[in-house]
Amino acid sequence: MSTVVAAKHSDAASLVSNTIGEITRHIRTHELGPGDRLPSEAALSRQLSVSRTVVREAFSSLAAMRLIDLRAGRRATVAELDYGAMSLVIEHGVHTEQITVQQIYDVRRTIETRTAMLAALRRTADEVEGIRAHALAMRENFQRPEQVMEHDLAFHLEIAKAAKNPVFSLIVGAFERVSRQTWPIGWRSRPSDAEQLEMIQIHIELAEAIETGDPQSARDLMARHFDESVKALLAAGIA
Amino acid sequence: MSTVVAAKHSDAASLVSNTIGEITRHIRTHELGPGDRLPSEAALSRQLSVSRTVVREAFSSLAAMRLIDLRAGRRATVAELDYGAMSLVIEHGVHTEQITVQQIYDVRRTIETRTAMLAALRRTADEVEGIRAHALAMRENFQRPEQVMEHDLAFHLEIAKAAKNPVFSLIVGAFERVSRQTWPIGWRSRPSDAEQLEMIQIHIELAEAIETGDPQSARDLMARHFDESVKALLAAGIA
DNA sequence: CGGAAAAAGCTGCCATACAGGTTTTTCTTC
DNA sequence: GAAGAAAAACCTGTATGGCAGCTTTTTCCG
User: CA A152 → C1' C20, Å?
Assistant: First the structure.
């Protein structure tokens, strides 16, 4: 039974792994939240009877997964939810050819048709403002692809945020790094101004649907957006 | 504009971060795939003009995100896609009360109604066998909750696999650690044998729908499964 | 009492050392 | 010459000690 996507059963009795476990356990048992400070490396070193080297590697690993924040001279603190690590995992999957760009679009479509719908139901006035601002900024800067891309990414993240479920934000964010690399391909496959503006127009209408509070339209527009994007990528010869 | 879920703009000019970047760049530019070997710590240390300590912490971080595999005495190798790190991130979010269990169920419902549908369309004979075996094993072992849970988890992962999109597997797997902790709560909230068997029955029917190749039924059954699960959790007083 | 300066504490990084696992090379024997 | 065993070379895991530079706490002066 080859599992393709697996999780190592890490009994991994290495000191570092155990130390990571102890630290996360510490967070859990002490009910620490974002911003709360962890013991110093030296303290943990004594407490767990391992060298500071081991504690440092454990901290470093936790920081890589963005579970804690590290800053020189300061104590480590519990981190806020952050999609940085997940974004690296996805990017790694694409670069090692274990994930295709099209598979990512399939997942994004599934997720984001839902966030669009929820956003239309739950958005606050502020969020509507942000979403619309990004959509309009895409149109205004449409001769500067860099800018368009940044606003596009922010647009999708803002919708996820308006859906009021941080897990959706996490997942949408997880695709950010890859999107930065594939976005220009999609853009170039829409060579005329008309085609580019048409793509941007969908974003604007989507912003309006969310503003109006029309979940069905929001959903449909997001679906259309992804259908068009996939079409564009296929036209550009992306497998 | 408070972002709630963020990604640190890691210009993070720390040596370790830079080294992590260099290593992932090495993987990318040399087009390394799973199993391929990376340079030794000493070699990278010389090549990048940093101490072995720094290289080690970078390796350790990459291993934490499951981008590479480390084993004593052996060279580091590029890892296969693995949801271990993502699962820790989600678990962290729940323990620090940045994510609620119900929010996870919302996302799982969105994702897994899709995987069920796709599985019905794309499954192989082997996968059907695996999926059904897990569903039946749930019924057979239904007096041993531990066993039921394990087969339940494997059931959902196998469906994701049958959907033939590793990103779905990654996401479904990302909820594994949390599920292991919340599953018993849902189970206990179905106190009678009849209720427990009813829940298991949905799994069996779902397996059948996937076997038959009926995407609509598969989808509906998965949706019902999650609706029931949420109801059970709410009954148990989970916010 | 307020604020500046000194002290203490902490992290980032480095060099070195050695135990124990793994790979490669060498040597022996058939 | 080939197969297999022994040795050498290489590699990672962990520990220790040290120092620069940043932060927090304490102390002391006005």
Answer: 53
Chain A residue whose CA is closest to B158:
A3
Ordered per-residue pLDDT tens for chain B, 239 residues: 445 776 655 455 789 999 999 999 999 999 999 999 999 999 999 999 999 999 999 999 999 999 999 999 999 999 999 999 999 999 999 999 999 999 999 999 999 999 999 999 999 999 999 999 999 999 999 899 999 999 999 999 999 999 999 999 999 999 999 999 999 999 998 878 888 999 999 999 999 999 999 999 999 999 999 999 998 888 887 76
What is the nearest CA distance from B201 to chain A, expressed in angstroms?
25
Is B151 in the same domain as B111? Answer: yes
State whether residue B83 sits within 8 Å of chain A by CB.
yes
- The pairing of strands B77-78 and B68-69 is antiparallel
The Cα of A187 is separated from the nearest Cα of chain B by a number of Å equal to 23
Distance D10 C1' – B55 CA (angstroms): 17
Q: Hunting for tokens 């703009």 — which residue is that?
A: B9
Closest nucleotide over all strands to A45 (CA to C1'): D15
Which of B55, B80, B110 has the most A C-beta neighbours within 10 Å, making it the best mutation to test the interface with A? B110
Same domain, B36 and B103: no
Tell me whether residues A96 and B24 touch, CB distance under 8 A: no
Considering only the C-alpha atoms of chain B, give the largest distance between any 2 of them, rounded to a whole number of Å.
66
Instruction: With beta carbons less than 8 A apart as the criterion, state whether A115 and A163 touch.
Output: yes
Same domain for A212 and A102: yes
A174 to B59, B113, B161, B194: CA distances (angstroms): 21, 21, 20, 41
What is the CATH classification number for the domain harbouring A99?
Answer: 1.20.120.530
DSSP for residue B183 = H
Residue B200 counted as domain residue: yes
